[in-house]
């Protein structure tokens, strides 16, 4: 479903800020895999998702989604295959546009956009039902500007937008990190539900190890631009946070340096 | 009381001129408000649209077709700015300035000089300062038609991609939108409309002049801002897209009426440009000052000193 072959990416090459962010990331996700990703600050988690999404060209390696080599496709061209939710709730939606307009834009991801009306009556009815499912009262505010929504509401909406047209791969980059704990839990639960109901293949970066263990069927740990641990099935289910910390020290030879992760550890 | 008379006599002409500039302001609205680019091409485009129209009409072309020529010329100018910006990575403001300055040369070439007359006595024109009533009607129709067309366009699937691009490029790309081409299309459309404004203005004023567009962006911005402030005051949350465009045109009328008032009151006419810059600076600056007044270092310092003083008293 998703294959990454030896992906490499260096930022600011040849300057004093040179940073080898990805040093050969290789992984194959099977259809329906829901992978959680953990690792220290700057380990390359976001960079990995950005390489999949095509935010910039990779230096080396290939990205294959559903059998199609998309390495040479720009971000907007491969968007047809990818749904994304970002860490910052502001990033995923257009604030000055209506809730229903945002959904209509997302519904046409990867399609040719012509001079027909941007949103049909039939769609409106569909969006009304979908928004009801979120249980946030958004179905009664479909013509409100998204800028009026809270962070949690915006993330829930972004999640809906990312999955409105079934993506071949769903990328969630710490999408609950900017939310208060209660809202974060709700959005995470919603993510689980949407992924399960639509049998999506998904990658979710999180700084919360307990969440990483609890959600998904597979877990990978990154350090220094590499995947250092990859576990799935029963073995993953039985993991504890202590196991993960120990594993990290064992493989990387240092303590986990993700400050937020340690905070979220209790 | 002759001053008041002068003002009212000039009013229909000012309104006509205001609505021609209203079209330019609607063009500015598309770049400045919809895709969030300050496009300085328009100064050159206004003169370009006028030059193309005058030359075509003098060569025997029907004025309607010549105006299409002004539109196409404007689109071309927008396309060049758009390509400089997206294909060569030149900042939008600078890209606009580059196109604008080269249009000066182009306009001199087209006009074979800096000025070319177009008399309504010799040609059948759409608008002219000698026929104010019918001219006013014509420009009202132009504004209505362009506002209706834009309302339709920005409601289409494709038009919505331009709005998304202006609002949030990351979101737009994640939804599969080519933000570069969307930006170019918006610049083309905007300048096309400004070209039409130039074509109408040269008919109304009876000539094309390479300097006609000097400072046009400032007048356009003034109209956009006046319209926005007024519209939000009246309609608040109901200030929708059609109203925004209509109030942009209205803002241009208000601009010309205000300018007439200060002229009648005795301001030398060469000061109107500085005045328009002051108006724009004020309207752009006031929201900023309002924000900083709520949270400023000066106030924080004052609060801190007051708190320290209280402590000492206790
Ligand atoms: N666009 C960029 N330009 C320069 N450096 C970047 C960029 N994106 C990420 N980096 C650097 O690459 C490294 C990996 O970053 P990232 O993948 O965001 O880490 P994380 O695992 O915390 O998500 C960091 O050192 C970061 O500063
Ligand atoms: Mg990150």
User: Helical amount among residues of chain A, as a percent range?
Assistant: 25-40%
Q: Which architecture name of chain A does CATH use?
A: 3-Layer(aba) Sandwich
Side by side, the strands of the main sheet of chain B go 1-2
End-to-end Cα distance of chain B, whole Å, is: 66 Å
Listed once per kind, the bound small molecules are: adenosine-5'-diphosphate, magnesium ion
Low-confidence stretches of chain A: 262-266
As for the CATH topology of chain A, it is Rossmann fold
At the first level of CATH, what is the class of chain A? Alpha Beta
- What is the count of DSSP helices of chain A, taking H or I runs of 4+ residues? 10
Strand/helix succession of chain A: EEEHEEHEHHHEHEHEEHHH
Key traits:
heterodimer, A: 266 residues, alpha/beta, Rossmann fold, six-stranded mixed beta sheet, four-stranded antiparallel beta sheet, 10 strands, 36% helix, B: 314 residues, mainly alpha, two-stranded antiparallel ribbon, 12 helices, 2 strands, binds adenosine-5'-diphosphate, binds magnesium ion
């Amino acid at each position: 479903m998703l294959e990454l072959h030896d992906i490499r990416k260096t930022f600011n090459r040849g300057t004093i800020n040179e940073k080898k962010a990805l040093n050969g990331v290789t992984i194959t996700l099977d259809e329906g895999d829901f992978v959680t990703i953990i690792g220290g600050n700057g380990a390359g988690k976001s960079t990995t998702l950005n390489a999949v999404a095509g935010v910039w060209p990779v230096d080396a390696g290939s990205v294959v989604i559903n059998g199609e080599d998309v390495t040479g496709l720009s971000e907007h061209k491969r968007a047809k295959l990818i749904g994304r939710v970002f860490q910052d709730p502001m990033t995923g939606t257009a604030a000055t546009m209506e809730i229903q307009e945002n959904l209509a834009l997302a519904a046409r991801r990867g399609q040719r956009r012509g001079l027909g009306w941007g949103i049909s009556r039939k769609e409106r009815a569909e969006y009304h039902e979908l928004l009801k499912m979120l249980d946030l009262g958004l179905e009664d505010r479909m013509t409100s500007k998204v800028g009026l929504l809270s962070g949690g509401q915006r993330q829930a909406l972004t999640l809906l937008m990312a999955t409105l047209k079934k993506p071949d791969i769903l990328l969630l980059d710490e999408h609950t990190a900017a939310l208060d704990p209660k809202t974060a839990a709700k959005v995470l639960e919603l993510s689980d539900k949407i992924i399960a109901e639509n049998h999506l293949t998904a990658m979710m970066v999180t700084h919360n190890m307990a969440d990483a263990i609890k959600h998904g069927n597979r877990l990978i740990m990154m350090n220094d631009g590499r995947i250092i641990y990859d576990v799935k099935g029963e073995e993953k289910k039985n993991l504890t946070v202590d196991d993960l910390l120990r594993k990290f020290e064992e493989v990387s030879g240092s303590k986990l340096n993700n400050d937020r992760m340690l905070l979220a550890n209790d | 009381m002759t001053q008041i008379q002068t003002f009212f006599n000039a009013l229909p002409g000012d309104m006509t001129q205001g609505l021609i500039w209203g079209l330019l302001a609607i063009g500015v609205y598309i770049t400045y408000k919809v895709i969030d680019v300050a496009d300085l091409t328009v100064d050159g485009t206004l003169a370009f649209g006028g030059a193309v129209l005058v030359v075509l009409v003098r060569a025997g072309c029907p004025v309607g077709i010549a105006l299409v020529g002004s539109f196409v010329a404007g689109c071309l100018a927008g396309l060049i700015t758009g390509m400089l910006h997206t294909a060569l990575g030149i900042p939008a403001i600078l890209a606009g300035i580059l196109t604008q300055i080269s249009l000066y040369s182009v306009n001199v070439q087209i006009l074979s000089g800096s000025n070319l007359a177009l008399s309504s006595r010799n040609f059948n024109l759409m608008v002219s300062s000698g026929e104010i009533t019918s001219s006013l009607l014509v420009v009202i129709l132009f504004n209505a038609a362009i506002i209706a067309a834009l309302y339709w366009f920005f409601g289409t699937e494709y038009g919505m991609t331009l709005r998304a691009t202006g609002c949030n490029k990351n979101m737009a790309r994640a939804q599969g939108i080519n933000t570069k081409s969307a930006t170019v299309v918006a610049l083309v459309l905007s300048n096309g409309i400004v070209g039409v404004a130039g074509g109408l203005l040269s008919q109304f004023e009876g000539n094309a002049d390479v300097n006609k567009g000097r400072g046009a962006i400032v007048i356009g911005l003034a109209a956009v801002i006046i319209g926005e402030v007024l519209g939000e005051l009246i309609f608040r949350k109901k200030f929708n897209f059609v109203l925004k465009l209509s109030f942009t045109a209205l803002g241009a009328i208000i601009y010309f009426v205000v300018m007439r008032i200060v002229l009648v009151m005795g301001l030398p006419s060469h000061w109107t440009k500085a005045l328009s810059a002051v108006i724009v600076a004020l309207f752009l600056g006031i929201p900023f000052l309002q924000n900083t007044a709520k949270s400023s270092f000066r106030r924080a310092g004052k609060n801190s000193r007051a708190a320290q003083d209280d402590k000492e008293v206790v």
